[in-house]
Amino acid sequence: MFSKRLTTLICIAVLSSAGLTACVPLVMGGTAVMTTNVALDRRTAGAQVDDQAIQLKARNSLNQALSEQAHVSINSYNRRVLLTGEVPNEAERQKAAQLTKEVENVREVFNELVIAPASTYSERTQDTWVTSKVRTEILRTSDLPSKSMQVTTERGVVYLQGLVTPREAQLATDSVRSIGGVDKVVRIFEIISEEELQKSLQEREARTAEGPIGGNLGGPNL
């Protein structure tokens, strides 16, 4: 049952060409990896807070509504929610999506749940390992906004979320698709234009020049 997933915070030393070290949370089951550097995230501060609240509220709602045979991982990025995992039947699959849509501030739901027995511990461990390798590759790839991307792995399928340009989306896909253990890459990116990105960076620089970063962080308020 997804409510019994083991969630642990571990610090992974990731060596990139720039010698970068990142501390990231791993969620066992959905194996989502997300950096915690708020200032470099393209989401607004409000969106980041909403994403945390969405995940908590959706998890509580699904925990009460679904059977113990369900194993569901919930990952929200910029108020767009990805559901992955396994449920015993189509009725529960649809129920999970509907209940998630009803959570406050949810803009969109991507229902990637499959009708199958819950994944085994060994499968989830493998997914966690794949996620860490994908995340490492993203961190070491030049021109990828690692702080604005989220990775989830389920049964060898890698889901990519984030606020990226078309060029960055393609670069990310090309960078991770050949990694061992990756069976398929599914892009759930929210695409922004190069112009929107440049405007966002200029606004960030202006806020930084004015003093301590305030409440509205990140990129376009989408």
From TrEMBL:
Keyword Protein transport: no
UniProt keyword terms in alphabetical order: Signal
Record field: compositional bias (Gly residues): 212-222
UniProt signal peptide: 1-22
Residue intervals of the BON domain: 50-117, 126-193
InterPro entries per the UniProt record, alphabetical: BON_dom, Lipoprotein_DolP, Transpt-assoc_nodulatn_dom_bac
Annotated spans, Disordered: 202-222
Keyword Signal listed: yes
Pfam family, one: BON
Superkingdom, natural source: Bacteria
Protein known as: BON domain-containing protein
